[in-house]
Amino acid sequence: MTFTLYSLFEAALLCVNAVAVLHEERFLSKVGWGRDDQTTRGFGEDPGVKSQLINLIHSIRTVMRIPLIFLNIVTILFKLILG
Amino acid sequence: MITSNNFTSAIKIRLQGGRRSRQQKQPLPPQYGYGQGPQFFDDTTNIYPNLQFQGQPPGPATGWNNQTFGQPSFPGQQILGDPMAAMAMQYGQTLAGQGKVIVNEKLEKFVSVSKLKYYFAVDTAYVAKKLGLIFFPFTHSDWSVHYNQEEPVAPRYDINAPDLYIPSMAFVTYILTAGYLLGTQNKFSPEQLGIHASSALAWLTIELAIILLALYVLNIGNSLKVLDLTAFCSYKYVCMIAAVLASLIFSSLGYFAVLCYCSLSLDFFLLRTLRVSLLSQSTSDHYGGGSRRSLYLLLVLCVVQPFIMYWLTRHLVLDVGVQSNVME
């Protein structure tokens, strides 16, 4: 089973890229996963699964926007040179 | 490099320290490691100071030095008969000691070695009892972890505490038994060991990532640390070793029988242990919903373990066809 740590890195990079292309205005709000629809909750209560997921998507998009550029460039070069 | 030397020597001391701990009547006073404050477990790293890099191994050094100055032995000392040079040597050694302390403090920020040491504070009695518990947890009654002022007691004193010694040893032993099994089927080559190691590590990382994601999204498990979770997810390597060894003796019937029994006992063990730690934080503001979610997560985790064990070992035991080593 040739499942190496590098293929794990590739899979994670693809997943993070997939999360990064979910635009908030153009897509997520249209399907009802926008962040401004979630304000009608109390504070200190249990935040539901959906709002946790929305927060997670938003944080991934915010944090990984710049590092993803470099990681993608590095991976593309790596695959170009080493095949 | 210095700290990795220290770490491996600490692991060797741990292995030898297990035999001596039975002879000691009272535990050692707590050591203050790297200026981090008092630790609640006996840090046995510094019992044998002559094994650290500043001392000398007794064999080769005594053949070299002259012992005329009565100072700590240093190869080539007879050349530096000058007391000034000897003083400079002492100063250099104290500087090196201070440098070692600074490097350790810097490393602490990234890897947190002192927290890691807690998980390796085990002795042979604990390891034997824990292994027995993994294979037969049905008669054990008290599953709660004992705390010592808000911090869990070291695994040496509490059998229910998780440790990382058994998982790391089980991982290495699993790689070696996989290599041995491949050898009996004439499929062995040294690259296979590396392939198996990285494959098992990758599956462990995926499992951990999925569980951590689930813990975040479902908003439970605030006190379950990452290293605890690593330990619990790696206890299945022990069962995989047992199943694979059974396949050596009894071929595929023994493999499936041991796999089924070990899945049962491992699931029971995980259920009992994690139920105590996960459900203890279902506080009043969850209104019972949180404990239900954590119970579901626990059940899913227990159901998934046998499948992962089967998936990781099936190509060693059954004839699943020729594996190609070419990475696409």
From TrEMBL, chain A:
Annotated compartments: Membrane
Lineage top rank: taxon: Eukaryota
Signal sequence interval, chain numbering: 1-18
Coarse class of the protein's main subcellular location: membrane
Assigned keywords, A-Z: Membrane, Protein transport, Signal, Transmembrane, Transmembrane helix, Transport
Pfam families: Yos1
TM stretches of this protein: 63-82
Keyword Transport: yes
UniProt record similarity statement: Belongs to the YOS1 family.
Role according to the record: Regulator of endoplasmic reticulum secretion that acts as a key determinant of brain size. Required for secretion of extracellular matrix proteins. Required for correct brain development by depositing sufficient extracellular matrix proteins for tissue integrity and the proliferation of neural progenitors. Acts as a regulator of the unfolded protein response (UPR).
Stated name of the protein: Immediate early response 3-interacting protein 1
Organism: Limulus polyphemus
TrEMBL record, chain B:
InterPro entries on file: Yif1_fam
TM helices/strands, residue ranges: 164-183, 195-217, 229-249, 295-312
Keywords assigned: Endoplasmic reticulum, Golgi apparatus, Membrane, Protein transport, Transmembrane, Transmembrane helix, Transport
Region spans: Disordered: 15-35
Chief location of this protein within or outside the cell: endoplasmic reticulum
Membrane topology: Multi-pass membrane protein
Top-level taxonomic group: Eukaryota
Pfam families: YIF1
Family to which the UniProt record says this protein belongs: Belongs to the YIF1 family.
Protein name listed in UniProt: Protein YIF1
The organism of origin for this protein: Limulus polyphemus (Atlantic horseshoe crab)
